[in-house]
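If your schedule permits, I should be very grateful for your opinion on a structural question. Kindly check, if you would, that the fold set down in the C-alpha cells agrees with what the sequence suggests. Thank you for your consideration; the sequence and its C-alpha cells are set out here:
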Amino acid sequence: MGILLPSITLLTTACTHQYTNTESSQAVSDNKYEQQALAKLATLKNKMAVAKDKNIDVTREETIVWFSEQFLKFANWDEANLDAIEAAFGYERYYKPRKKGLALALPDYERRKVIEILDKGIQTLDLELEGKIKRRPVRKVDWQNTKAADNMFLSQGKPIFPYDYFSKTVGQPLTNTDIYNDHLGAIYHGGENLYPVDHDRAINSFLVKQDGTFDQELLKELTSIPDTNIGFLLYWLMGIPEWVEQQEPEVRKGRSLFTGFDVDNPLARELWAKIIRKTAELTKGKKVTELGYILANEPHWFAEKGYPMQKYKEMNEISSYTLTKFRNWLRDKYQGNITKLNKNWQSNFDDFDNITIEIPIDPILIGQPKWYDWSRYNMDRGTEWFTFMQNELHAVNPQADTHIKIMPRMFLDNNRSGGIDTEALTELTTMIGHDAKSFGSPPIRPHLSAKWNEKYAYYWSAVTMFHDFLESVAPNKININSESHFLSSGAWRDMDPRTSYVRSVYWLATLHGMDANMGWFWARDPDGSPEDRLEGELSFFDPGLAGAFAGSNNMQPHVSNEVTQVMYDLNSFSEEIISLREQVRPIRIFYSETSAINSKDYMTKAKKLYEKLFFEGLPLGYATKNIIEKQDNSKWDLIIVDNNHFVTDDEFNALQNYLSNGGVIVLTSAENLAYNEYGEKRPQQLQANNGKLIVLPNQTSLDEIKHVALTHVQKTNQPKLKVKEDNGQPYKTTAWRVVEQNNGCYLLNLLNFGHQQAHLQIYTDANEPISMVDLMTANKVDSQLNLQSEGVLLLQVNVNNSATCPSNN
C-alpha cells in the first residue's frame, strides 16, 4: 500500500507526553515544521515562476500553495485554541477518550502534511520542468457560465464536473473569495449558508407567518444571492412553526429526522405549496438554480420497531390523515375485497374504514402480507409527497430542475421500512440526486460490517453498485451528489486517510455517473476558526453535526488538496471519462423492490453477484419492470434473475414480454419468480417463446453464473482489450473499462481496489502488438505493468499501430 506517515492516532501518545512534560518543546517543534514548510513554499513558488516562463500550466501548484498557506494558518489557530479543538474531538464519541492528545498533536500533524504535499508538488513539477512528464493543462470549472444539458454539465461545449462543499462556513458571505474559489469550489448555495445557527436552514417553513404573509427579511436572504455563479437551492423540511402546531395538533405525528412534520397533513401541505410557489417565482431563471432545487435533505420514514431513528421521534406514531390514506390505498390494492385482506393479514376487519395498524411495525412480520402492504404504502406515500412538491414548483417554473438527496442505504441496505423507493424517486425528478459515500478504512461504528476490508482497501462497491442502479434507471439525467461522504461521515472517518484512496474514490464515482459533487464538509472560517454553527456549546437535533468537525478534511491538508487535484484531472479528461461511462451495459441484473421488501438479506446476496461480475471489463446495469417497459431492450444482451423469489404479476409479465420479444434471461434457480408479493405460489412459469431462457440448477455457484452470463454477451459488446491480473490472491481486485475512440485508438481505465499491488497484462484475443501511453504523464507504458493498491491509470492504447493517437494534447 505504499509508505505512509504514521497516523495521528499513533502520534498521540508521544505528543501527549511531550506537551505535558515541557511546554517549551511545543514552540520549538512547531517552529521547526513551520519553517520547513515555508522554505518549501518558497522553493515551489520559484519553480512555478520558471515553469510559467516555459508556458507550463501551474494551476495544480497554485492549489498546493493555497492549501499550504491556509493550513499553516489553521495549525496556528488550532495551537492557540487547544480547548476548542479538544472540545471538537470530544463531540465525536469515537475520539472522545483521546481528545486531549489528539488536540495537542493536531497542529504539528497539519504542518507535517503541508510539508508532504509541498514535497510531492515540487517533485512533480521538477519532472515536468525536466521534460520527464507532460501533464494536460487544467480545465477549470467556469463557475459563471456552466450549464445543465440533458445528461451532463457543459462548459464551452465540453463536459465539466463541478465540485464544492455542501455545508460551507455558515455565516460567511457568498462573495468571500477565501471560501468561494477554484480551490474549494465556487458553487453558490441557497442552502446551508442562508440562516444563522439558531434557525432552521435554507428554504424552510418559517417563511410564512400565521397571517399567511411572507417574512420579508427571510425572503431577502434568498433574493440577495448574487446572480453570478451557478448553484443550488435546498428545501429544508425539518421544522414547522408553532402556529401550525396550534391549529393542527397532529402535525408532528409521523415526523422523521429531517422531515419535522406529517407530510399527509393538509395545513402543512398548504403551507409548503405557498413556500414552493413563492420561492420558485423569486428564483426562476437565476444561476443559483442551475444545479437544481433539492426537494429534501436525506428523507426517510423508518417505521420499524426498534430502528435507531425512533429516538429522534421518527415514525413513533402516525396521524389520522396517514391512516385514512393507508386505508384508501388498501381499498384500491385489494379492489374492495376485505375478505382477501383479512385472509392475508389474519385479521377480521369488517370494512376498510375500520382497519388499524400498529406503527412502528414489528420486524417479526417481514415476509408477511401486512409487512409488505405497509412498506409498499410507505414508499408510495413518500413518492406522492415529492410528486406534490415537484408539481407545485413546476406550476410556477416548468423548467426547474429537481433532485432529492437520497441516502445510499435506502438502496444498498437490506432494510426496506424507510419509505423511500429509490427507483421511483429517480424517475420522478429531472436530475438524479443522492449523497453517495464510501469507507476508506473500517467504519468507526462497531455495528457496521467491515467484511469488505478483508479483500479490498476501501468500500468501492458502495459507490459503483448505487451509481450503476441510478444510471440504469435514468441514463439520460444529470447525476448530482449534493453531500458526498467520501471523506468522512457519521459512520466512518480516519485521521490520516490515504491520498490514493481520495483520488481513487472520486475517480470511481465520476466514472460511474457522478456529474457534480458537493463534499461533506468545509467548516473553517478564513481565520482558521470553526464556522458559526460549530462554536460554543453544541446541541443539535441532528445527531451527526456536532462531531463532524473532528477527523474531517478540515484537519487534513493532504486530503483537501487531493480532492481539488483529482477534480482538476477529471475535468481535464472529461471527454475521455464521459466516453468510458456512456457505454452500453450488456449484462443486466434484475432488481425487484417486491423481493427486497419481503426478504431480510436481499441486498446482501445481490452484492455478492454484483461483485462476482464486476471485474470482467464490462459495465454492469440493472433491469426492473419499469426499465424493461420504458427503455430500449436492445441496449443489453441478457438479464440475470437471481434471488428474486417474490415478484408482482406486473413484474413477471414484464420479464415474459422481454423474453417473447427475443430477450435472453438467465434464471439462477427455478425458485426465482415463484411467488407473488404475498407469498402465494405463482401458477405460471416463464416461457422462452421467441427468446432464450436458461434455468440453472439450484445452488449453482456464482462462478458458473458468471460464466453463463459472459458467454451470452454479444461479440460487439465484448471489450477489444483484455486484462489478465495477478495480485497474489484467489480473487480479482482491478476494475477495468475499455472504449474505442473516434480516431481508432482505445481508452483503458484501470483501478486497483486491493490491498496488494496487482501485476497486469494487457492483450487482445489475437495477441496483436499494442502500445500504450499514460495520459496523466504522456509516458509510454509497457503492456505488462504493476498497479499499486488504489492506483488509478488512464491509458491510451494503439492496437497494431493501426491508428494515430493524439496522446496528451
In short: The first strand starts at residue 147 and ends at 148. Residues 8-129 form one domain. The radius of gyration is 27 Å. The chain is about 35% helix and 15% strand.
